[in-house]
């Protein structure tokens, strides 16, 4: 059997084809990352007129700062809640839509639309829904005897930002889960049904294990999303409050760098955040991927 090999008329053509991606990576990732690493070992005044090399002092201060440690804890629970809620709801929707025959495409279109909404708009939308003064959800919850107020309750604020962030990501997860469900051979499910397996047992013993590669991929993507791409949601809903209850790491980087003008500490925080995401990704690929059946 002969294998076909791609040949280029010019030896510079492959480099020219790769150049746009390389340029984008250098400009928007490598250069900002290198600048963050450089600034993380410096201390500057608020006007940027005086710079002092302090080594790892910015990192030591952060690890001894109760507010930063609180932000780490908040980020952990926010990431877990957002990932679990967005993936579980998306899987439920995908299973329900996959059973439809005539209206599958219509429901898929409607469920995909929220992904086009900007994070800040999603935050504003849910802020209005849960607004203690004019929102419909606090009014409905009041009927059940619960007085909702995310402005004063840290629990309510965390629930609000998790719902807003997860709603934005459900559409993305839904598309992958639906594609995975449609690729599962129906003969396996029909054989299990003939053997007497219930619908729930068929899902957990056949369908869900076959979805493990997609589930693993989405778990990695959702953790990165919760760590980096939820700034707009936090800024539009709670601005990190009340009492630092929703001040996740990426929002604290913004507050310390652009509001408080503590550039050295902000750069150190961004380096730590990048390191956390890299470590989590390595752990997921190293240990969790072993349970994935390809």
UniProtKB/TrEMBL annotation:
Main location: membrane
Protein family membership: Belongs to the binding-protein-dependent transport system permease family.
Keyword Cell inner membrane: yes
Localization terms from the record: Cell inner membrane; Cell membrane
Quaternary state and interactors: The complex is composed of two ATP-binding proteins (UgpC), two transmembrane proteins (UgpA and UgpE) and a solute-binding protein (UgpB).
SUPFAM superfamilies: MetI-like
Spans through the membrane: 12-31, 76-98, 110-130, 157-181, 202-228, 267-288
Domain ABC transmembrane type-1: 72-284
Described purpose of this protein according to its UniProt entry: Part of the ABC transporter complex UgpBAEC involved in sn-glycerol-3-phosphate (G3P) import. Probably responsible for the translocation of the substrate across the membrane.
Entry-linked CDD domains: TM_PBP2
Topological category with respect to the lipid bilayer: Multi-pass membrane protein
Record keywords: Cell inner membrane, Cell membrane, Membrane, Transmembrane, Transmembrane helix, Transport
Organism: Roseinatronobacter alkalisoli
Domain of life: Bacteria
Entry protein name: sn-glycerol-3-phosphate transport system permease protein UgpA
Alphabetical list of Gene3D superfamilies matching this protein: MetI-like (1.10.3720.10)
Source lineage: Bacteria, Pseudomonadati, Pseudomonadota, Alphaproteobacteria, Rhodobacterales
Pfam family, one: BPD_transp_1
InterPro entries recorded: MetI-like, MetI-like_sf, UgpAE/MalFG_permease
């Amino acid at each position: 059997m002969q294998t076909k090999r791609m040949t280029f008329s010019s030896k510079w053509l492959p480099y020219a084809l790769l150049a746009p991606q390389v340029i984008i990576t250098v400009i928007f990732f490598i250069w900002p990352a290198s600048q963050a690493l450089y600034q993380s070992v410096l201390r500057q005044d608020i006007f940027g007129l005086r710079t002092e090399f302090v080594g790892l002092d910015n990192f030591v201060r952060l690890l001894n700062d109760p507010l930063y440690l609180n932000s780490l804890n908040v980020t952990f629970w926010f990431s877990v809640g957002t990932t679990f809620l967005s993936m579980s709801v998306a899987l439920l929707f995908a299973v329900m839509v996959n059973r439809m025959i005539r209206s599958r495409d219509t429901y898929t279109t409607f469920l995909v639309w929220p992904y086009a909404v900007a994070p800040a708009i999603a935050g504003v939308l849910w802020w209005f829904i849960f607004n203690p003064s004019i929102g419909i959800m606090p009014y409905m919850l009041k009927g059940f005897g619960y007085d909702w107020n995310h402005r004063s309750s840290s629990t309510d604020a965390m629930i609000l930002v998790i719902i807003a962030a997860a709603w934005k990501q459900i559409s993305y997860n839904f598309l992958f889960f639906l594609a995975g469900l449609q690729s599962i051979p129906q003969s396996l499910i029909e054989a299990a049904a003939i053997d007497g397996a219930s619908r729930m047992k068929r899902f957990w013993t056949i369908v869900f294990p076959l979805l493990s590669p997609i589930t693993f991929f989405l778990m990695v993507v959702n953790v990165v999303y919760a760590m980096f791409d939820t700034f707009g949601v936090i800024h539009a809903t709670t601005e990190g409050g009340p009492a630092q209850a929703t001040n996740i790491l990426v929002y604290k980087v913004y507050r310390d760098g652009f509001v408080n003008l503590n550039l050295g500490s902000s750069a150190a925080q961004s380096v730590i955040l990048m390191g956390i995401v890299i470590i989590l990704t390595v752990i997921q690929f190293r240990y969790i991927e072993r349970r994935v059946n390809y």
